[in-house]
């Protein structure tokens, strides 16, 4: 007598695996060993395809140093006519300006013509450069700013690179240090040819400008501390000092300086310019 299951499902047959190595026809029920092997092969194949795809994608589309440099520069600065659409390179720079160490940096020496020439060579001797209207707009410069016409060496909008102005401000602070100021007062050159009130306002402007820049570009690196002995007096116990010799990622300054020198410069001698009808005129000196 048929079971109720068999009666309800007349086509249900009992699947039996007959151990016969000469036959490969297992229908829908392969032997357990071969079934597990196929599943393993499918799994391994899937993993290999996934690994190959991800590896290929990584090497084809991974961010290069050039891409990262360009992305960082564009994200942290507005478009600049100095570098245009070219990639601005970053480099690792080792800061080496110790407090008591044997630093021979000319930028920290006593006032002299040689020291001033070294500072000027950092871009302080650069005249304003001229931007076309298109460059001005891309740089965030409104077209109601001072414009120079063709008869005066234009057409174009005269601008100075902010980084070089910041170095000018730092140089002025160096000159105004109490142990340097007398020399520059005597020479009466540049900012020091102005009256005392104007000079003080100029120095105050530079102090505040550098404060703003340093806060804007705040370096999140760290200075560890080191123990240091006194080579002149061995009886003095070691003291704790900040370690100022650290590596940093910096924009390539030489590239910026060279590219600025290549730009069209404004010849300020015999320059006679007047406000245009669409020029912005401030109600007082800024």
TrEMBL record:
InterPro entries reported in the protein's UniProt record: UstYa-like
Pfam families: UstYa
UniProtKB keywords: Membrane, Transmembrane, Transmembrane helix
Parts of the chain that traverse the membrane: 40-61
Biological processes, Gene Ontology terms: mycotoxin biosynthetic process
PANTHER family membership: TAT PATHWAY SIGNAL SEQUENCE, YALI0B05434P
Family (UniProt): Belongs to the ustYa family.
UniProt-recorded name of the protein: Tat pathway signal sequence protein
């Amino acid at each position: 007598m048929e079971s109720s299951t068999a009666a309800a499902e007349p086509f249900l047959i009992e699947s039996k695996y007959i151990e016969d190595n000469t036959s490969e026809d297992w229908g829908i029920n392969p032997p357990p060993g071969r079934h597990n092997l196929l599943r393993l092969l499918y799994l391994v194949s899937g993993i290999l395809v996934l690994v190959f795809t991800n590896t290929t994608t990584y090497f084809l589309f991974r961010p290069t140093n050039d891409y990262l440099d360009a992305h960082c520069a564009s994200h942290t600065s507005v478009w600049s006519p100095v570098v245009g659409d070219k990639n601005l390179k970053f480099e690792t720079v080792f800061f080496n300006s110790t407090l008591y160490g044997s630093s021979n940096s000319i930028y920290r020496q006593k006032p002299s013509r040689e020291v001033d020439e070294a500072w000027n060579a950092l871009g302080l001797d650069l005249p304003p450069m001229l931007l076309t209207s298109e460059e001005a707009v891309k740089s965030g410069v409104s077209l109601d700013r001072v414009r120079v016409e063709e008869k005066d060496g234009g057409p174009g909008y005269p601008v100075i690179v902010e980084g070089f102005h910041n170095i000018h401000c730092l140089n002025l602070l160096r000159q105004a240090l109490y142990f340097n100021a007398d020399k520059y007062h005597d020479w009466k050159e540049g900012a020091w040819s102005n009256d005392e009130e104007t000079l003080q306002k100029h120095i105050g402007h530079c102090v505040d400008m550098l404060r703003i820049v340093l806060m804007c570009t705040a370096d999140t690196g760290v200075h560890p501390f080191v123990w240091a002995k006194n080579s002149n007096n061995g009886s003095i116990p070691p003291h704790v000092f900040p370690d100022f010799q650290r590596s940093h990622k910096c924009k390539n300054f030489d590239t910026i300086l060279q590219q600025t020198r290549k730009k069209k410069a404004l010849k300020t001698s015999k320059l006679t310019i007047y406000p245009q009808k669409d020029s912005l005129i401030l109600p007082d000196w800024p």
